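## retry 2 of 3
previous attempt timed out at serialization; input unchanged, resubmitting
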Amino acid sequence: MNQELKHKWHSIYGQILFDRKLMAAWKHVKANKGCGGIDYETIETFQADEDQKIMELLDELRKKEYKPKPVKRVMIPKKNGGERPLGIPVIKDRIVQQSIVNVLSPKFEDGIFHKCSCGYRPNMGIERVMQIILWYIEHGYNHIYDCNIKGFFDNIPHKKLMKTLTKYIADGTVLDMIWKWLKSGYMEEGKFIDTTSGTQQGGVISPLLSNVYLNELDWALDREGIKFVRYCDDFLLFAKSEEEIKRAGAIARDVIEKLGLEIAINKTKFVDFDKDDFNFVGFSFKHWRKKKNSDNTYFIVEPTKESFKDFKYKIKKATRKTLTLSQQAWIEKVNPIIRGKVNYYAIPHKAVEKNKAFGIESHCFLKSLSGELHKIDSYTRQRLRVCMLHKHPSVRKGITMTYKWNIEYFCRIKLIPANWLYYNIMWDYPMEMYIERQTSKNKRKLKRQIERFKSLGKEYYTKERLDAITFCKGLA
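## retry succeeded, writing output
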């Protein structure tokens, strides 16, 4: 709910004035890693004398002498080609922010935040988002409003945010501290610049503040009976008719304008899922369609093209041929990337299974990415073949090693095939079956190639090809 509390939260500041509380916050900050702020203090330098520095910080807080420093402004590339400003607080500020989050977050989770708000919250995340989307689609809510808030983190009005916080928090010291974090400014190219709006992207407390502010939107939609799911500043509205979804979109725009924010027109659209597709949280939702020779319908959920490109880029970045590593070391570099990406790609399957436990029949087709995963596997093996050649590695030499370092070989040295892992998560796919299928598939492919050459009156096994095969067999 977003009504003003009758019994607001007092004595929040007093709950962080313990060395164990600050040490717990420091451990959280350390686990998140990241670089240092404008004072050149890094995770490593702070850790070298952490006990003493924690006690000094505690003394500052008890005497109320703590003052936040400006953040360090850096620009990071966006996936669409632009840049996003990131504000990096100093380590000390991150610890204090984390200690406040540790106290406030459980309070907001206890009935304040809406169940359909899934970003930056414990035990929520993208799997919960997927579960809600699939639930609504399966129940016939096929008119969708796909909306994004323009420059959300940079444009949150400070006074309106503080007014929202005062509905729950009565501790003046904490409110004053949050205000100082919002107004701390940033350093860019040696110059100090004031901040008039927005929260620090990169600040530990920013995700919590953003959820508190957009909680106003969540409950406004709820009061109007609008079905929705929100992940940070991106949200979807659902309805069963075009008229209903247009009404829902108008209400959402009105609430967002009252919050002092603006809709990103270029990222916002109405979707009729009977004929239109949409993307959300890194997945592409492809509209309802009929099965061949049947009246049964289904829809497809698969990772976006950008996600597959990112997968390939990460493999390329991890397999630089300028390094000389053992085969096992290469496998240990690549496997975490494959495991992380495929576990992400398996989120729709996990959401489907959770919905099935509530009696929801699934019409979601999840087998459409097999071809893309095979391409990723082929690319990964070829990159590793080049990397594993320690004497003058080249792509051409890597190709000649295909006979020796084949699919079965890589499976034996514990490389995780993305295609196998994806289907193993869903159906407990045995590795031996995967190897057998891929080997027989390649044999059938070779047979088709030979027959195609014969039909064109060409010879497949030319002298050059036979010499190359002989050479590869010699290496093997």
